Amino acid sequence: MQLSSEIITASAQAIQTTGSHLFWSEQTNTSLKTSLEEVGQTTPILVQETETGLELISGFARVMILKELGKPVLVRLVERLTDMEKGLLYLIENTHRLQDDGMKLKALRYFRTFTSEKEIRQTVLHRLGIKPKSKDAKLFMTWLELPENWQSHLTAGRIPLAAGTIIAKMNDSDRHAVEQLFTNYSWSRSNAVNVLTWLFETSKMTAHSIANIMNTTHMDTMMGLTLSPKDTIARLVSTAKKARYPELTSRQKSYAETSAKLVAGTKWQLEQPDNFETNEAELTLRIKNSQQLKTALHDLEDMVTRPEWEILWTIGTSHD
Asked: Which of 21, 123, 227, 309 could make a disulfide contact with 86, Cβ separation 3.0–4.6 Å?
């Protein structure tokens, strides 16, 4: 892979900009346009000569902006490149760009079309800031084997990288059922992994399809309600957890209702600290002066005699 020292001027219209190695070409840069208008082009783009004309190797945004401005383009010629070399040179030229997981997957999809996973691990991953033997590397390799419609959710930022492991375990029918969760919502890592894991595990435990579980728990209809995305996701997460852990969810609800009565009108917070492995309770308090402390201690004395304590002690074992 050699760069020529020859720099020429070419018409922006004459440069082919449709190569698949330009995998981040849809990204725009408004500040670059301002710079090109005020100062002009200071760095040439990279092109190679082909039988059909000049093919762009790197510099898509500059070409598009200069074409819009009706200005010629400074280009530096490179020797004829293989598909691998095109992709690698494009990566090298774009190392300054912040890369999210979606961008990294787009790059890997390009290389995967003509080379092996082994070659990608050896040659490509480190250029994307991914350690070849890391958990992220394994996750990206998993995503490359998933259907393109799922890959599009990752590149669009609607689903986190970590969700790939559980999605890969699902059959096509189950993947189809859960895909609606990610069509119109962007999920955090923990929420996405939890919901998918709970649905998958519930399906295995009950021998029911995920579509059936989502239907019977009304998860599918929740997405049609006029709720904010945040509230919708919160409901979906809560429902999936309840389906997976019905006993625990029931206890948590009873505990929350009872503890709320116990601490009503005080600054005390009351929680069950260990998912009901014991019947212990945890009281916490946040205060900012001595008067609040005195009031809290007085409240605590009053709380001791409340009858809800006996109910609280038994919630953890009442369903055994």
From this structure: 21
